[in-house]
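Good morning C.,

I know you're traveling, so I'll keep this short. The sequence:
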Amino acid sequence: MKEPDRTKCSSCGAPIYWARWRGPKGQGGFVPVDTEPDMRPLGGNLVLSINPDGKLFAENAGIQHRGTRKRYNHHGDTCAAKTGRAR
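The tokens, ready to paste straight into the viewer:
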């Protein structure tokens, strides 16, 4: 996967990607995604893909992607400013 553009979280300063949500009901808004994969057994609830136009998409990892693709966390779940946890 080509490296998507990174930005920083305005609350904690961590590097993030902004990805368009793709779910069972179609495309939605943008979601902040941590830039580092989380491959722990129960880590990472999103998988990322880039379309031919270079746009980044995120979707639920689900059972079908466990162990087959890199998984990432929604940044809202890990943001140090929102969770009170240091990064």
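Safe travels,
E.
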